[in-house]
Design goal:
With 372 residues, the protein is α/β, with parallel strands linked by helices. It is built from 14 helices and five strands.
């Protein structure tokens, strides 16, 4: 035999009426089937409805002194915590106008006094079944929303991991993938600092800042097409003019690689558009002396101008096969010479304001020693 603790809990019915005889009548009718709470005025009814243990249904008299049933119903339906409790009016009012108003403010049903016990029992059972169905649907919807959020989060992680994995193939000559992580956080910090600047507010939305963070590791993806003997040429051996021309092609080769990938998908994706702009133009300079297209000023995409600062800073403060580490302070001074000519002046001023954040990012993602 099942223990009482295993029996399903009875539904809780709140009966609201200012007449004691009516409360006794309804309680006697329902007590064998339901748990019962009673209130003899509107204020007490609202207090019970707002409690942690809410009623599953409310039987509500309309004509009560002070706060009448209409006001109780209206207030409960306005609150998110109590709006879903079904309310059945029990009243001697039988005119169409009263019933219409009751339904208009949120009542689930309307039963006339004097009551018919079979009708009351049937109406309560029907409304509780409807509430169970609605609650199940709501719980199911909430579960599906949580599952969608979880899977969307998983997709974002997979996308970021895929981008990092692909980009790391081009990270030749850099000690670890730390460069890729650092540039992600550099560009995010700089974009967030500039997001409300009048020149950039139209581009630096939440979505685009997030996209910049995702695609930043792809900025040098074209270096997979550069021969290692050129890309890894030691610092003591200067690149020849022809070799430098080959190095410069990493921008166009990277752009072509992403363009081919996008075409194979058969659709244009906004985040790949931003990636292509960054890949192609992050070596452009504000005075037009950069490559590959010699763009000037605002013709250079915002994404590329942001990456120009992030990439140059990281190149200076990190060890490369062609150079030793340069201290943060010295790197900033060297970059200062390029304000307005190499770097966007407003972006560079923002960089100066948050340079401590850049230095902290460098320390957070250090290169591993001994992997040169």
């Amino acid at each position: 035999m099942k223990q009482n603790s295993e029996l399903p809990e009875k539904k809780l019915v709140l009966i609201v009426d200012d007449m004691p005889d009516n409360l006794i009548l309804m309680r006697d009718l329902l007590k064998d089937l339901y748990s019962i709470k009673v209130a003899n005025n509107g204020e007490t009814a609202i207090k019970i409805a707002r409690s942690v243990k809410q009623p599953d249904i409310i039987l509500l008299d309309i004509m009560m002194p002070g706060m009448d049933g209409y006001e109780v119903c209206r207030l409960l339906k306005q609150e998110m915590h109590t709006a879903d409790i079904p309310i059945i009016f029990l009243t001697a009012r039988t005119d169409v106008e009263s019933e219409s108003y009751g339904f208009e403010i949120g009542a689930a049903d309307y039963i006339s006094k004097p009551i018919s016990p079979p009708i009351v029992l049937a109406r309560i059972k029907a409304q509780l079944q409807l509430k169970e169905a609605r609650d199940f649907q709501k719980d199911n919807t909430r579960y599906l929303e949580q599952e969608i959020d979880r899977r969307s989060h998983d997709v974002e992680i997979i996308k970021e991991m895929t981008i990092l994995a692909i980009a790391s193939m081009a990270d030749v000559g850099r000690e670890t993938g730390s460069h890729l992580r650092r540039t992600q956080y550099y560009i995010k910090a700089l974009a967030e600092r500039l997001r409300f600047d009048a020149r950039f507010v139209g581009f630096l939305s939440d979505y685009n800042i997030s996209t910049l963070f995702w695609v930043a590791p792809l900025h040098d993806i074209g270096k997979v097409r550069i021969p290692s003997h050129i890309l890894l040429k030691p610092g003591g051996a200067k690149l020849t003019p022809d070799e430098f021309e080959v190095i410069k092609t990493h921008t166009t080769e990277g752009w072509k690689a992403v363009q081919r990938a996008e075409q194979s998908l058969g659709t244009r994706l906004e985040f790949l558009t931003i990636a292509k702009e960054m890949i192609l133009s992050h070596h452009e300079k504000m005075d037009g002396s950069g490559y590959p297209e010699g763009l000037i000023g605002d013709d250079i995409p915002i994404s590329a101008r942001l990456m120009a600062i992030a990439d140059v800073y990281d190149a200076l403060v990190s060890k490369r096969v062609y150079k030793p580490v340069i201290a943060h302070e010295r790197a900033v001074e060297m970059m200062r010479e390029g304000k307005g000519t190499h770097f966007d002046a407003d972006m560079f001023d923002a960089f100066l304001e948050i340079q401590d954040d850049f230095q902290a990012i460098t320390q957070r993602f250090p290169d591993q020693a001994g992997l040169n």
